[in-house]
Write a structure and sequence with these properties.
Blueprint: E1 11-18, E2 25-31, E3 37-42, E4 50-52, E5 58-60, H1 63-73, H2 81-95, E6 101-103, H3 104-118, H4 120-130, H5 136-161
Parallel strand pairs: 4-6
Antiparallel strand pairs: 1-2, 2-3, 4-5
Helix pairs in contact: 1-2, 1-4, 2-3, 3-4
Length: about 160
């Protein structure tokens, strides 16, 4: 750290402490050359996670956009705002493992899985937009896949009970 008084790079940290309600750290320093003390503040650099869209465009991850998409899928469904917020937070946490960039398909798949666990109608609504359903056949294919999965899980649960 360069001393603001004499310009020397020879100094030491006397005290460090976090600043409440922020991720910044306050450091009290002393220059070994001129012996003057000064304070510095350090905070982590925000790195914006970029989403790689299906057409190779890149845009910053927007939590509000994900929240709005899930909310639209859950309109007039018994899904609380708290549940939607929890889903968004979970997806956001799961994609934070990606460094710098995450494919939109990963976000979509994680969101679909969360919706499937919460509400199948909201899942179908989201899937119809996400997977760009073109006609009734696309809906039917997805519904058959869901029914097959549902029946498989039901059979599995029945076997566990017995």
């Amino acid at each position: 750290m360069k001393c603001p008084f004499c310009g020397s790079f020879d100094g030491q940290v006397l005290d460090s402490r976090p600043i409440e309600h922020t991720s910044a750290i306050r450091r009290r320093r002393q220059c070994n050359q001129c012996k003057k003390r000064y304070t510095t503040y350090e905070k982590p650099e925000d790195i914006t996670l970029m989403v790689i869209k299906s057409d190779s465009r890149r845009e910053p991850f927007d939590r509000k956009k994900l929240w709005a998409a899930i909310s639209r899928a859950c309109v007039k469904r018994p899904v609380s705002t708290e549940t939607i917020e929890k889903m968004v937070s979970e997806v956001e946490t799961e994609i934070s493992d990606y460094i710098m960039e995450v494919p939109s398909s990963v976000i979509g798949q994680k969101t679909l899985q969360k919706l499937l666990d919460i509400d199948t109608v909201a899942y179908i609504r989201f899937a119809s937009v996400y997977n760009k359903f073109a006609d009734m056949n696309d809906f039917m294919t997805e519904l058959k896949k869901l029914k097959k999965e549902h029946d498989k899980n039901k059979t599995k649960k029945n076997k566990e009970k017995n």
